Amino acid sequence: MGLFDIFRRAPPIRELAALADFIDRNAAFLIQKGMYEYSRARAGHYAKVMMNEPEFLAAIEMSRWQGFPLGLAMVGEMVEGVLRPSMGDDARDRRAGLDALMDLVLVVFDRYPMPPAIEPAAWEAARAELKLRLDQVGLHPPKLVKDIPIPLADAYFDLMPIHEKLRAADRPAIRNYLRISLINVHDELIGRLEAPAVARALLADGAR
Predict the structure, then answer these.
(1) Of 64, 123, 149, 164, which sits most exposed with the smallest number of CB within 10 A?
(2) Looking at the 3D structure of the chain, how many domains does it have?
(3) pTM for the complete prediction?
(4) Cα separation of 29 and 112, whole Å?
(5) Can you give the residue range of the structural domain that contains 58?
């Protein structure tokens, strides 16, 4: 990366491959950033030591993979809400667009081999739950971005690689972290997404 590359705008999202990469990167970032920041905050002065402990590294590796489907569900629903107006007024087109987006998110999930720390049955169950959550997005009007994480915030908090006795009453803080972070992801998407082009690509993919 050159010195001035950091000032360059990220490229527009016009194609499904670019959208998949956006979903992948931001779902992972949403989950991992919160876990690391929360762990550092709870460990306090011992954070540097804890972050190098094999037990913690194993725990957060497990937690971030368990949380990845939650991140995909949140980012996927947010993307669908942004794209829905570009899918047209026909209910069948909107459904076809959602189905194509759902398939795209599941392709992102399937990019990665099954994590060694997670039982195969649990990983398959996580995929099935992700598919169900995305499928249900079409049953209601798009949510406000800040409200999308609310149903998943407790499940995310329960994955924190910190002993339950040390977590304190931090659920509201974690919920707010998810809400603010997803709003930031949404802002980036709005600035980069060429919605009509991506909607056409999804509808064409669904038609195939």
Answers:
(1) 164
(2) 1
(3) 0.90
(4) 15
(5) 12-207
